[in-house]
């Protein structure tokens, strides 16, 4: 995996709508949420497709970038049944988030607030959207895991992803994954097997969407490394006491980490061997790095291109700190 992420200028999210505690009552949750969820009809040169979204502020709907990709005509329908003209104002292929401006919003419909904290595994959630075009659908389940990652274009991944067993089907993409207090914990994106769905976290929405509204795009930090997890065999090969962190196995030529981080040499075959003499990253700016997801999440949520981060690494069994000035992710291929 080649890591990179973004951080745009700090922009306050929209003020949360007032919501009442539902105490696990899905009927109440539906009544307070469904009107703020939209169905999107997208015309492209290849045909017509549908997706979902939710009201972020009085003029903008958040959805997935892949839902509106290539749109030549876009209409948005809320629960009042009227079709409204939508205009794509910004997309980000690296988080699969997009923002659509609508020409009007039904009276009394309020934006959905974003969750201020990371959801907990086991926490009840509900997925809203229009699976297979069935508008106003709610499904429910729990948060199955957090800090997951999803692959996107260019060999990168979306970090800080929420895993859920709430059913997510075609047409749900872009709709909100909502906790029982009515706050959005994620944006539904993908289903990868029975009872395994993924949503882009509210923290990424808060990070990316304001910049899409302001500028139409967002830049992402780029380190330019490929890493593998540190297993016991990798730890032994690199003189580590514990199997923790991620081992650098490749640096991008002339990239930010080139000449700063040391990539390992493979012993055995690349499929069955382990890297030796590799820098092993265990922290970034003092924050522990146990996995690839930890590094990618930190870069995306807390850095921007041009900033310098401090990486704590083990090299030849010795602990040291190196500084890397972050670049900007290349355009997706």
From TrEMBL:
Ranges where the record places region Disordered: 1-25
Keyword field: Hydrolase, Protease
Gene3D superfamilies in UniProt: 2.30.42.10, 2.40.10.120
GO molecular function: serine-type endopeptidase activity
Start and end residues of each PDZ domain: 224-326
Family matches, as InterPro entries: Chloro_Bact_Ser_Proteases (IPR051201), PDZ (IPR001478), PDZ_sf (IPR036034), Peptidase_S1_PA (IPR009003), Peptidase_S1C (IPR001940)
Single Gene Ontology BP annotation: proteolysis
Membrane-spanning parts: none
Keyword Protease assigned: yes
Pfam family, one: Trypsin_2
Name of the protein in its database record: Periplasmic serine proteinase
Organism of this sequence: Halodesulfurarchaeum formicicum
